[in-house]
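Sample pair:
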Amino acid sequence: MRTGVVVGLAALVAMGLGACAPEDSPSGSSTPSGADACAKDKLAVKTTGTLTVGTDKPAYEPWFSDNNPSNGKGYESAVTYAVAKKLGFDQAQVKWLTVQFNTAFAPGTKAFDLDVNQVSISEERRKAVDFSSGYYDVRQTVITTAGSKIANAKSVAELADAKLGAQVGTTSYTALRDQVKPKQTPAVFDTNDLAVQALKNKQIDGIVVDLPTAFYMTAAQLDNGKIVGQLPSSGTTEQFGFVLAKGSKLTGCVTQAVDALKSDGTLANLQKQYLTESGAPELS
C-alpha cells in the first residue's frame, strides 16, 4: 500500500489498499551464503559503486521530507540510507530515480536496484517482484477531529464510550472490534470516504484506519483532522518491504541489512523520530 497526505493519493485510498492481506515472509530473503557475499564489491548493482533507489514523486511526509528523498529525512529516506550504509554505500553513492507506485511492482525489467514507496508485501505482488523483509509493520490508528470527545485520549480504555467506525472487511474493522472493544456497536462503512463523511457530519467520534491512511485523511480530507494514536501491535500485521526485481541477487543482502537494523533498534528509533513524534502517538 502507499498512502500519503495530499489529495493526489485519493485514488489509492479508494482502491482499498489499506485492506491488503498481511504477509510475513519475503520472497528471496534467505541469508546469503559466504561471509563476504554481501560485500559491496560483490553486489550485483545496476551501476558499479552506486545504489540506485526508486520512489514516486511527489514523495510525501512523513515518509520523506520536503519532497526530496535524497536529504535523508523522513522515515523511508532515513531507512534507505541506513540500509545503504549496511551494504557499504555512503549517502553520496545513493542515486534516486522517480518510479511511479504501480510500476514499481509490475512485471518487467527494473531500472532500480531497490524501490521504497510504502509498498505492502503480498503474495500476489511476489509473482512479479522480490521483497526484502519488512522494514515497517503497518499499525492501526484512531483518527478524529480537534475538539471531539476522544481528541485527547491517551489510552485504548478512553475510547470505550466513543462511537467509532471502520471500513467493512478490513483489518481496521477487526482491530476496532477486537482491540478497542467499544461499548457502542461499531459503525461499518463500504468505503473510507463514507467514514470520513460520517465523521464530518458528527455521526461518529472517530475512525480506525491504518497509519498511512490516517496521515492522509487528517491532512487532506478533514478540517482540523487529528490522529488520536496508534493501537498496540496485535498479531500478524501488514508490512512494507523494499521492492527488487524478480530473482534479484540483491534481495538476500537487502533483507540481511533490514533485519540487522531491526535487531539493533535502528528501525524502532527512526519510527519514533519520524512517525510517533510526527503526530502519531502510541495509545497505552
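Residues 3-29 have pLDDT under 50 and may be disordered.
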